[in-house]
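Course exercise 7: structure representation. Students receive a sequence record and must write out the corresponding structure in token form. The form below is the worked example handed out in class, using NADH-quinone oxidoreductase subunit F (451 residues). Read each field label carefully; the graders check that inputs and outputs are placed in the correct fields and that the protein name is recorded exactly as given.

STUDENT ID: A-19
EXERCISE PROTEIN: NADH-quinone oxidoreductase subunit F
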Amino acid sequence: MTLTSFGPANRIARSAETHPLTWRLRDDGEPVWFDEYQAKNGYAAARKAFADLSQDDIVQTVKDAGLKGRGGAGFPTGVKWGLMPKDESMNIRYLLCNADEMEPNTWKDRMLMEQLPHLLIEGMLISARALKTYRGYIFLRGEYTTAAKHLRRAVEEAKAAGLLGKNILGSGFDFELFVHTGAGRYICGEETALINSLEGRRANPRSKPPFPAAVGVWGKPTCVNNVETLCNVPAIIGDGVEWYKSLAREGSEDHGTKLMGFSGKVKNPGLWELPFGVTARELFEDYAGGMRDGFKLKCWQPGGAGTGFLLPEHLDAQMYAGGIAKVGTRMGTGLAMAVDDSINMVSLLRNMEQFFARESCGFCTPCRDGLPWSVKLLMALEKGQGQQGDIETLLGLVGFLGPGKTFCAHAPGAVEPLGSAIKYFRPEFEAGIAPTSAAVPPLARPIVVGA
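STUDENT ANSWER:
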């Protein structure tokens, strides 16, 4: 799989007018360093933001553009920025880039950081100006060693050009930017767990409120945004709200473009920048090329391991948050996975739930004990040793670990694919029940955590 696979060459012509995130990419996949980035209109939006726009103007522009978080939650970015305090006496505040991309089957932020590091830096510079933050951190998953190397070089290039550090562009505004590599925990994708990890603490989510905008890194106001979210900011500031909103397909309630992809046994697995509102069928057939010869599409996930499974008949759904919600799940990160007809759903779910159980921070009981319980039951079903009532117990866990039942969104995301798999492929789970097993009341089967 190549991170620069943008579909058939005769169908894709990337330009600044249609592909604000990816038009600067090199065909050879090498990074776009400072001189080339600047030659391709790089940092022009930052200069405009510093010269022509007030800090409030930048926030309002992003809000008017309807930019939403691209990390999976989809919270309106301008609204989030608006939560930062207006009190000028609170002069110590932080901007954090959430680059802890550990969602299975998701690699979009990696491509941006490895090949367009200056796009992220420009997005953070404009955002810092809007939020009056004097220091920023790119919190990067430790396994992304190439991205860390490229980002650090790009930071030094920006410093040498006077675009980071003291008195940027003669404005009197100071902004320092650091690349911080984490220890590799999925839970750091949750913004307050990320903040704890950055401070050197255990990566547990914090109680909210207070929200990071009020009490964040080292108790100071903090804004946390995803890599792809921040990379959208230069185009919005540079080319305007109406142009940005015009990029999406008719019917989409989300604006702009999105990095979308397909993996699995498809003919052309890859990553593409596409307008919100494109159908999943177009993504699957026209860009990913459909299934490889000899394989049939059984089901698919629209945006990472924490989203529910959908069937082939759902491929006509539009790829935006509301479009995917209409068919019963979330868009998530927008990088889909095709499951072929050779895959047993019980084994697939056992693998997924093992990952989520191991990545739980262990803070709250439903997640700490419920996810290993689901793994135990799935392992028994996988071996044909399940008992009557196990499927009902799994469905009970899906309810007990659902939204609003746990301290953060880790467990709800973990059980969403489990619930949808049982909904659509229950006979495969029933096949794992031993013929002579005795009936066990739901949620009554004994469990030894870690066994």
